[in-house]
Amino acid sequence: MTKSIHCKKLNEKKPSLDQAPFPGELGEKIYNEISADAWQLWLDRQVMLINEYRLNTRDPKSRAFLEEAMTKFLFENDDSILPPDYQPPT
After folding, report:
1. If you ran DSSP here, which 8-state letter would residue 12 be given?
2. Tens digit of each residue's pLDDT (9 = 90 or more) over 20-65
């Protein structure tokens, strides 16, 4: 049974994730404060960032970049990491 939480990203009550998306304190914070819907929005954004910036997910610098982008996206509503010429799909 899925629990509901007040999602910090979407600012509404939504179903939670089934488990923390990765280990550690940040994973627990996401599990407790971010809904499954908002997490899916992040996963879509992450794919776009990986493709646009041509990131290698095995590279520690790329992983650090994605973690920073994730934190800004989920908790700060900050889109400053988008590519400068990025145009959202219409």
Report:
1. E
2. 998 999 999 999 999 999 999 999 999 999 999 999 999 999 999 9
Given the structure tokens 């509503």, which residue do they identify?
77
Q: 19, 39 in Cβ contact below 8 A?
A: no
The reported pTM is 0.89
Question: Which of 70, 72, 88 has the alpha carbon at shortest distance from 80?
Answer: 72
Pick the CATH number of 4-76 from 1.10.287.500, 1.10.15.40, 1.10.3880.10, 3.30.70.20: 1.10.3880.10
DSSP state, residue 73? I
Q: What's the helix, strand, coil split of the chain in %, to 5?
A: 50, 10, 40
